[in-house]
Amino acid sequence: MRKTLLTLILIMIALGFLHAETKLTMELWNRWTYQMIDGDVTKNEMALKRGYFRLEPKFSENIKGRFNLDFFQR
Prior knowledge:
By secondary structure, the chain is an alpha+beta fold. The chain has one domain.
């Protein structure tokens, strides 16, 4: 199943770059945490909590595809 899905994605990407109009987008959500207790800084950190990478090839008006990669931190 994984090999079939990977093959399909790679074919879509290759055809997308060769014969189609391709749109690449990425969205990232970050978080800055700052905690102070009794005047002392106990936590000061920046973290990437969630992100999306999207590839959208458009072959014609009737045929287009979408590959979406979602990554997150628990």
